[in-house]
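Human: Can I borrow your eye for a moment on a structure tokenisation matter? Separate attempts, laid side by side, tell us more than any discussion would. Could you pick a protein and write out its sequence and tokenised fold? No explanation is needed for now; the record alone will do.

Assistant:
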Amino acid sequence: MTDSLYALIASRFPAERTRTVIETAEGRRYAYADLETTTARYARLFARLGAKPGDRLAAQVAKSPEAVFLYLAALRAGLAYLPLNTAYPAAEVAYFLADAEPAIVVCDPAVEAETAALAAAAGVRRVLTLDAAGEGTLAAESAGLDPDFAPVSRAADDLAAILYTSGTTGRSKVAMLSHGNLASNALTLHAAWGFEPADVLLHALPIFHTHGLFVAIHCVLLNRTAMLFLSRFDAAEVVRLLPRASVLMGVPTHYVRLLGRPELDREACRAMRLFISGSAPLRLDTFERFRERTGHTILERYGMTECGMITSNPLHGRRVAGSVGPPLPGVEARVATPEGILLPTGEVGILEVRGPNVFKGYWRNPEKTREEFRGDGFFITGDLARIDEAGYVWIVGRAKDLVISGGYNVYPKEVERVIDAIGGIAESAVIGLAHPDFGEAVTAVVVPAAGGEAVDEAAVIARVKEALANYKVPKRVFFVDALPRNAMGKVQKQALRERFADTYADT
């Protein structure tokens, strides 16, 4: 008996292996039979190159069906998969390779020489290449190998993947995810979101991240159905393909861009069953406008690299705008002070979670692992939240983003909701900046709405004063063309704090 995630996925493959698993925007189709033979050949190549169960395989490659097969082949061979953002420059890749010590690195042919030099310095055994069309030395060297490879036996606690978190200061932490972590979360989501035999997923997410790689792809494979596979998110292309799909997983920015397409309406969404949003907070006006335009209520959920998905609004039941829903089945959540004192219902504190989806710990960092877990096994997420009487979780912000002004706690999300509701404003980010008198001063960074009514700093401050206590009112409001974001759409507040750091220096 094996607890290999690949073995679980393979057990769900359709009897008719000719059924499509991936169709690209260009019309290329890949059957489950292609998935089986390609992953077998890749896995056999890894073994021939000396990679042993438990070794790491790092991949910095363009999104393609073959990149999906690469991930699955790593699981099949018993390797731990390390996906790297294609935007990482050489200096960051060098750090990741030295830290993770992978046995094999797969990169784009265009950066093979550069990556080979970095790999040699890190002691990596072999570098292979894979481009967006599925070509490269990975394909060439595996093409003639036996397309039969039994999945390497793995225990539930064995490492399946390591992911570098999207930290904004210092070095990223490295979450270790086991076969059991990923399998339990995949099975839970497949059931919670009610996947049906005829479902088709429209996949427009990157696959170097939990959302696109694990959440989306695992659900499709456990469902033995197909996905329409886009190399990147393109709003016009997504709307064009919606009549052929039934499920879309996206980030809030995707839904904002879809609303900018005049052809998005109820007719375009006639075949859709479910729209899911995550990876960043969904604005209330986006939630409401999307429901009005399409007739669909977006299902918002919450997760993080270390845990996969943690909470979700219900498939059947009340989907509450601004909330990420109750904990998923098998997951426990509570709110506590930084010292670990549990807080009553409705109070804001640090969200802590426990369940089979919660990661093993941080790679080669037992001290950090001990710091982030309570003695009873609850993981300290670092997110500020409250849990209401119905059990729904409301994320207030990151603990590190909490603003303490004049001794009072200011939760940025509360101020942002007021500012975002002002006509003429597209979005906002509230940060704390060093202030000689208050310690930190509440400061708002605002993006004006395109074609909206003119709004100035005084108007923003006046509106917040009407809605919130005076200590929560921004002392300054800055207007920018766009907020800095990472690849998954999360606002990078550290970049804003650095940009406006000296605002109150002469106060």
The domain at 27-178 is CATH 3.40.50.980 (Rossmann fold).
